[in-house]
Structure formats: structure tokens, C-alpha cells
Amino acid sequence: MYKSNNNRHSAKPPPLVSIITVCFNSELYLEQTIQSVLGQTYEHIEYIVIDGGSTDNTINIIKKYEARISKWLSEPDENMYDAINKGMALVTGDYWAVLNSDDTYLTDTVQTVADFFNRHPDIKVFTGAERMIDENNKYIYTRYPPKFSVNSMIRLRTNGIISHPATFLSREVMRTVGKFNCAYQVIADYDFLIRVGLRYHIAHSRRPLLNFRLHSGQLSMDYSQVAAREKDRQAIVSYYSRKNCVNMNLVWWDWIRINLANPHYFCQRQLTKIRRLLGGRIDAGKSSCL
For the whole model, what pTM was predicted? Predict the structure, then answer.
């Protein structure tokens, strides 16, 4: 077998990974988020921060680190997804992801992702597990992604099958799938991930990539948005259901498999429904089931 001695000249350069963080009045946790990106063991990172015109200390926090932030801007936006779209327009990396302004990466997250894509260049989307933490960074439980099924995602009416902030995508996905649909005020990521799943295989790992913070101020815990969320969810489900034929027996098997793999997540979802009925009177920090 012929072996070249010029590997060092033909070696592929490390991929550039773009991270987008969008924020608005995010002074409480933003600095931890920024530090988790800047403290990565992987060096080839483009960090983009999009602020929606904050009036608290958010801008000062960004300016504190602006020498190490690749690009940032602050201006009013339509909603969080409009801000993400602005960040996507600035991406020049080979791969990209969105990190919420209250979440954090593990120190080797981007290295793990870059290594995976180097080993599997044909795969365009990769998602991992997420460690759920509370307001004080206390570990609660780990949520693991099951094998992805876009039909189950549609029929089970949830994007909880995979974690958007723990998902990394090739820039090709951005070109083929397009931007987030800002018409969906609260769950545009649900629509976006369905579009991704309809076009691409989504590889998954049980390795945690993210610390996902559960706290009363996050958008998904805003019970005033319940009606809007359900209206958008129904519109999304109706649209894609008309385009896809689904074996409901397989879908419900997926539902069983997902919840057996993530008992904490199942309990949290049921408790969230109860909290909504009670107007949020159960303390989320005391709602662990196991």
C-alpha cells in the first residue's frame, strides 16, 4: 500500500466553529455564558453576540469581553429568533450553534464537536445531552437525546426530542433550510428543527455538551406565553402533518422510549403542565422526581 510522506501538507485545517448568543436584559447569567465560550479548550471559535437593545448591565458585560468577541451588535429586534437570524447572517464558520444567554458549555464542548465532524465529514448535524442546572449552577439531572425521528417530533408535538442549544450544524444547513420563522414568537426552534430533520440525518451522542439552566425568567417558563405557544405549535403540527404520513404505532413507541431514557424529563414535563394549571405555584427548584 502506498503511503504519502506529505501528510502535514495535506492535513485539513481545523474547522472554524461559530457560536451565536442572543440576549436582552441578560445581566444575571450572561457573563457565565460568555466565559464558557471564551474558556473552551478549542481555539478556532468565532463568537457572535446579538443584543436586542438591553437597558440593564448587559452591554457593559459585553464590552468587558469585546476584545475576545468576534462580532457583536446591539439594536432592537422583533423577537429572539429575529436576533438569531441576524447572528446567522454574520456566521463565517464551517459549523455553528446557538448558545442561550443563560446556558453554558462544558469546557471541552466545542473540541468534542469539532472532533466528531472531523471523523464524520458527511454528517451535517450533531446533537448531544444536556445537564440541567438551577439558578445557582446546581446539577439537577441529565437529559439524553434519543434516536431522532422527525415524524415523532411532529406527532408528539414537542421539540424536546433534541435540544436546540446542544445541537451543532454545518453552514450548509443554514443555506438549505433557511432562517428561523419569526412569525412563531416562542417556538420557532421547533419549526426550524423539523425542517432540519426533514432534510438531514441528525447524529446524536449521550455525551453532555451543555449546561441548560432552569429558572423562572426563561422564555420556556413564561406561563403568560402558554396560549401563544400552543397556537403556534398547533399551526406547525397542522402544516407538517399534511405533508407527512406517520405510523402512529411507531410514534407512540418513540414516546415510550424517550421517556424511559429520560425519567427526570418526563416528570418535569408533567409537573410543568400542573404548574401551568396552578398558575406556576410549584417551585421549579423543588420539582425533581428522582
Answer: 0.81
